[in-house]
Specification:
Blueprint lengths: L1 H16 L9 H24 L25 E5 L4 H6 L6 H12 L7 E5 L13 H18 L3 E5 L1 H8 L5 H4 L4 E3 L2 E6 L2 H6 L4 H18 L1
Parallel strand pairs: 1-2, 1-3, 3-5
Antiparallel strand pairs: 4-5
The structure holds uracil.
């Protein structure tokens, strides 16, 4: 979708150069563009509101805020825990070793990263990759909730216990929550293991594969 919009932009600026200042759009095309751009605009507004965030202590040690990336009209949103070293430097989610595994896992079920929106519960890296503190999660959570409410995906997939517990508010081990579909504000939510955990515990990859197959099945049913 990003490429289509990019191409459309180039085409429109080319038309403008040719002196053509308006194009006819079918009502459904206009509606789609308006919907797309309003979702993107709303996400942009949250990003602006987040600004150079200093709501918790993490700003002192972070390099870049990792807001999230992907199409605003994504059918799947992945929610991780917090940026790691590489993510903090690049300002993008899941670009380190865990991200590589995540990309491979998605590819295995026929999904590319470009069609998925990826974000984290906490938008700044906790020092030395420690778990985010409750107070940090509480400060950042409203931004995640707003991202999810704007995108309104068909499925949310939470990666690891922090993301799962933050959204489901159930203090039950991830190993008991995974493997089935939950609901978050009416949206289907599938918890699975965090890819960083899978790198340390490759024996659990089989279970994560089951979760991804479930994700694919739920997604296909909702289209
Ligand atoms: N781990 C996460 O939870 N999120 C990232 O973006 C990267 C690693």
């Amino acid at each position: 979708m990003k490429e289509v919009l990019e191409e459309l932009k180039i085409y429109l600026s080319w038309l403008k150069e040719m002196g053509i200042n308006s194009v006819y759009l079918l009502p459904e095309q206009r509606k789609m563009l308006e919907k797309l751009s309003s979702k993107q605009q709303l996400l942009q507004e949250i990003k602006i509101e987040l600004g150079d965030c200093k709501r918790c202590e993490l700003w002192k040690t972070r390099h870049k805020i990792v807001f999230g990336e992907g199409p605003a009209e994504a059918k799947v949103v992945l929610v991780g825990e917090a940026p790691g070293h590489e993510e903090d430097l690049q300002g993008k989610p899941f670009v380190g070793a865990a991200g590589e595994l995540l990309t491979k896992m998605l590819k295995a079920i026929g999904l590319s990263r470009e069609e998925i929106y990826i974000t984290n519960v906490v938008k700044c890296r906790p020092p030395h990759n420690r778990n985010p503190k409750l107070q940090e999660i509480e400060q950042c959570k409203p931004f995640l909730i707003r991202q999810l409410n704007i995108i309104k995906p068909s499925v949310i997939c939470t990666l690891g216990s922090i993301a799962t517990h933050t959204l489901l508010q159930k203090d039950i081990p991830i190993s008991h929550l995974r493997g089935r579909v939950h609901l978050w504000q009416g949206i289907k939510l599938i918890p699975t293991f965090h890819p960083a955990y899978l790198l340390r515990n490759p024996g659990s990859k089989k279970l994560a594969w089951e979760d991804l197959k479930l994700l694919k099945k739920v997604l296909e049913k909702s289209i």
